[in-house]
Structure formats: C-alpha cells, structure tokens
Amino acid sequence: MILQSLKMAWKSIITNKMRSFLTMLGIIIGVIALVVLVSLVSGTTESVKNSISSIGTNLLTVTISDDKGRPVKLSDLDEIAENSDISEAAPIAQTSITAKSRYSSETAAIYGTTASYKDIAGLTLSSGRFIKKTDVDNHTNVAVISSDLATDVMGRTDVTDETISLDGKNYLIIGVLKADDSTTSTYSDYKAYIPYTSLIRLTDTVSTSITTFCVSAADENSTSAAETTLNNILYERFNEDEDAYSIQNESEIQEAMESVTNTLALLLGGIAAISLLVGGIGIMNIMLVSVTERTREIGIRKAIGAGRGTILTQFLIEALMISLIGCGIGIFGSWIILKIASVFATSYNLSFSLSMNVVWIAIAFSTAIGVIFGLYPANKAARKSPIEALRYAG
Amino acid sequence: MEATDIREEAPAVSDAQIIFDNVSKIYSIGDTEVRALNHASMSIRSGEFVSIIGPSGSGKSTMMNIIGCLDTCDAGQYRLNGQAISDYTEKELAAIRSRQIGFIFQNFNLIGNLTAEENVELPLIYQKVPQKVRHQMVLDAFEKVGLPDRRKHHPNELSGGQQQRVAIARAIVTEPSLFLADEPTGNLDSATGRDIMSLFRELHDLGNTIVLITHDESIAHQAERSLHILDGEVSE
Fold first, then answer.
1. What is the pLDDT, as a whole number, of residue A185?
2. A383 FRET partner, CA 20 to 30 A, in A130, A198, A280, A301?
C-alpha cells in the first residue's frame, strides 16, 4: 500500500514537473542554507580547536603586568615547578630578528626560554637536541630553529652544528624542529628558540625579570588544581593584587571558543531553519491548490473504494516526497558548495566537509515540515464528500 | 398510485439485492428544503437488469448516490445484499463501494495521469490484492471489454468509446455484485452507445445485476425492467 502510494505520489509530482520543482526550491534553498552555514562554522571551529589543542590543554600561561618590585626570576620558576600539581615551568620571551646565512636572510620570531619549554609546548625535533640547563646557565649562543627557517635560510634541514646569524650574532644550530604536518598552511613558519639568558643579551626588551612564563600541570586533570596553586603563589607575591598578573588556561580558552562557535552555529542554523519553514508553507500552498484541482480525482478514487485514510496517506506522502526530494537535492547541493569552498579555503588553512549531524537534522526537519504542512491539505482532501467531489467540474 | 403497493410488496421479495423502504433524502438550500427522494420504495432482485428513468431534477442522481453507497438517506431504510446501509460510517461505506459496487459514469471518470491499465488496477490496490494476482485480473478485465491492446495508453489518447470500455473494465475487475451505470452512453455517439449497451447485456447474461440510470427512453427500454422516478417518487 505504501509502495503504491509512493508510486502515485511520484506520478503526480512528475506530471507537474515545473510546479513540483518550484515548490521544492523553497526546501532546497532552506536545506542548503542550513547545511552549508552550519558546516562552515563547524569546519572553522574544528580548525581552531586543533590549533589550540596542539598547544596542550594542561598548559597555563602567566603574564605579569606589574611586578611590585618583586620580579620573577629564573630561580623562582624552579621553585614553582617543585609543586606537586605542576610539572614544569619555563619563561617565554619573544622578539623579532633577522636570521641570516651566507645564502639568504628572513625575518624570524625568536623565543628565549629554558629546557623545560620543550615538554610544556610539546615540541619535537627532527635532528639535534633542545636547549639544556647548562646553555641557560652559561648564556651560550645556541639555537633550535624551525624546519621552515632551516630550509629557507640554510638551504636544507640537516643543519645541526652549522652557524646561523641572528641579528648579526653567530649562533650554533643545535637542533631543528620537526615540520608541522597537521597544518597545510602555505605561509612559512620562521621560528628560533635560544636560551632565555642569551636573548637578554641579544635584545634590550628582555631582562632577567620574567614577564611571561608557561606552566604545565602534572596531567590534564590537575590543570585547575595547578591554576589554584599558581594563583596562590602569585597572589601572595604581588601584595594580594589580582590585577598585577593574569593566568590563562588553555582549556578555558578552548571551552570559551567552543561555546562561541556553538552559539554561532545555532544562530545561523536557526536563521536557515526559518527559510526551511517558508519552504514548508510553499508546500502547503501548492498542496492546497493541488487538492482543489484534483477534487474530481478524489471523488473517483472514493467511488471506486478509497477510504479517507487512503486519500490522506496519498496526499501526505506526496507532500512528504516533495519535501524529502528537495532535502536530498539540497544536501547534494551543499556537498558541492562545500567542496568548492574547501578549494578556496585551503590557503586559509581551513577544510570544510559535510557535517553529518546537520545532515540528519536537515532530513528530520524536512520530514517534519512535509508532515506538518502536508497534513492540512491531505486532511482536506480526505474529508471531501464523494458526491460533491464527483460533481465538481474542474 | 402504484407506489403505495410497491412499498408494501418490496420487503416481501426474498431474493432482493436492493431494497428501498420509504427512503427520503432532503437537501436544504438556504431556507428552502428540497425533497430529492420522497418516501421512495422499490426493490431489485439479484441478476436483474433494471433501468431507472426520469428527467433531470427528478431525484435519480440522489437515488444512484444512495444505491452506490456514496451517500446515506435521511429517513427510511436502504438494504444492499441484506445489509442495512443507512447507519454505516464513511469507512464502512468505502469498503462496500470497494467490494460490492462497480461504478460506470457518463463522463468515464478515468484518472488522467494514470494509464488505462493503472486505472483498472486502482480498485484492486484499494482492496489490497497482491500485485501478481492483480496483473492477471487486469488482463482478464481488458479481455472482457474487448480492449486488450490499449492498456498502456493514457485516457486522453483513447476515444470516448474506448474510455468507457476502460471504465467498465475498472468496474468489472473487482467482480462486484452490482453494476451501477449513470448515463453510460450520454457522451457517446449512437453507434458507440449501442456497442456499450451490448457490453452491458453481455455482463447481464453472465448473471450480474445492472442498474442503469438514464433520461433516454430508448436506452431504458433495453433493460428488463424500468423504474420511473418523478419528483422523488418511484413507480414501475
């Protein structure tokens, strides 16, 4: 019976091809809007989330804005790292310099830090070693450089034990970072890590007073415990002034980011859902016209034995079919649009794919719309009296 | 006149398939009441070929609607195959139409976007007959109306006579106990009309009950018996 209803619905849809397509168009546009917008937002979210979690969610960053005459020194960090909730602590200072070899030169970001930073930031080396404690103690001119910097300035990546000039000073390359495969970015990532103490000598903006340092919690679950400990230490140190420093929790940033994008997805999805609703009204409109036009057909069907339920099912399935075919075309259209968007977005380090969740939502929504807006016309058709319908001169 | 006698005799007929006992149907148009049927009584035996003849506005359409279970009466009783139809629900009426009555209309009433074959198949679908059985039944029906090679055509590709044959095939495919034809030759030229009438006689010879509604005396006389209807009252 259902199969027959499907066949009949299909017949009447293809009998009025143009009208059926125009009716579907409302649903098609609604579904494309819903699926594409939500997929774009979730694609962006995914990319941002990945870059945040590559930093690590057990990472706390402390920025000191006012040291109250009691600046944090390297030795203080060792003390902080001795707390049970805290795994490691490392200063981080950054400046921009010119990296030069005999062949070429590039502007690079240079970071002054200590041995602990490797584990905190989760850096991996393709060759050589990272900065050691002795390098920091002895202010040695050694550098760990990113693979992009190695390739573009030194000409190749296996450049350990060679010399690079950073703002005119010669540094011995002790290690090269592994190229980051997770990002497909086309811009080059020029970075160099040198001992914190060496950076003090290289630039005037960095002193023995540490203004920014990173702390890693013992594990991901103790991040908030580590944050509390750290807060207690700093609160006491800076004369109980909360505004003198700030602690950034990476997992908090991630959560905040997620809630923002979720709200955005909900908002855009809601707007798109309204256009789906409008599409549904279009279906109802055309179904009402169709019911009136086919009054005589309804009378004939009733005369030869169709009951109310049969007529209701037939028109309801027709509305549902228009809605779901529209939904299918819409999903296919979204897939194509997202494919095209992905081609353009790769240069921005983004990738968009059809979000399956929103596809299911679109299907569920289209079904609901087909039923809700199909029910009234179908019921109207089913309630027609057979004599009236047969007498109808349409 | 005789109507009074029939009213008394009708229920006595033991093998009656259709019994009208004092049936009335009243339509209200605005404030005025129209008695389309006024205490009409008659009976039709199983296997009879009866014509109901009357001018337009006489109540014959109303009578056909009630006989065909498309409508129910307001007063009196209508019995079809022993069932009192008067107080049936719409669903039950649909079931009776589906199984016991084959309709043939003046303007054929085929569904335009279905092929001839699909039109004939439709009542079987409503009866939930399995597809394999259905196919053979449809072929047989086309064979009976002498139209075996036009099955795949749409109604608008067929002549009036052919369309009426398809409509008759649609009526006979369910093997109903009663054929109800409303001016079946009204839209046909006289030659085609004769063909259709002979098809009805063939159906009658096979033992089917046929009720033919018409305003045309010459058509009415081709039936075994004629019932006259005027101003909502029936007479022999």
1. 52
2. A280
A300 interaction partners in chain B (CB closer than 8 Å): 109-111
Q: Which residue has the tokens 């000073």?
A: A169
Please write the tens of the pLDDT for every residue from B30-48: 888 888 888 999 999 999 9
The complex's ipTM works out to 0.87
Q: Could you tell me if residue B223 is inside a domain?
A: yes
User: In this structure, is the dihedral angle defined by the CA atoms of residues B198, B201, B202 and B203, taken in order, positive or negative?
Assistant: positive
Asked if the structure places residue B5 within a domain, the reply is no
Domain shared by A128 and A74, yes or no? yes
Judge if A230 and A268 occupy the same domain.
Answer: no
Range of the domain at A154: 67-240
* pLDDT for B82 beyond 90: no
Verify whether the Cβ–Cβ distance B122 to A304 is below 8 Å.
yes
Work out how many domains chain A is built from and give that number.
2
B97 inside domain: yes
- Burial of residue B128 (number of CB atoms within 10 Å: 0-12, 13-18, 19+): exposed
Distance CA B145, CA A186 (A): 78
Residue B28 maps to a domain? no
**Residue B216 clears pLDDT 80, i.e. is over it:** yes
- The residues, ordered by sequence, that sit 6+ positions from A175 with a Cβ below 8 Å of its Cβ are A125, A127, A128, A129, A130, A144, A145, A160
Is A300 in CB contact (< 8 Å) with chain B? yes
Q: What is the pLDDT of residues B156-166, one digit of tens each?
A: 999 999 999 99
Name the pairing type of β-strands A93-100 and B49-53: unpaired
Contacts of A381 in chain B (CB under 8 A): none
Spatial neighbors of A248 by CB under 8 A, at least 6 apart, are: A60, A61, A62, A63
For residue A118, pLDDT beyond 90:
no
Looking at the fold, whether A306 and A352 belong to one and the same domain comes out as yes
Tell me which amino acid residue A143 is: A
Mean pLDDT computed over B222-227: 91
Q: Provide the mean pLDDT of chain B.
A: 87
Contact check, Cβ <8 Å, A308/B95: no
Q: Among residues of chain A, what percentage have pLDDT more than 70?
A: 95
> In 3-state terms, what secondary structure has residue B143?
helix
User: Average pLDDT in the A76-103 region?
Assistant: 87
CA–CA distance, B39 with B231 (Å, rounded to integer)? 11
Residues in chain A: 394
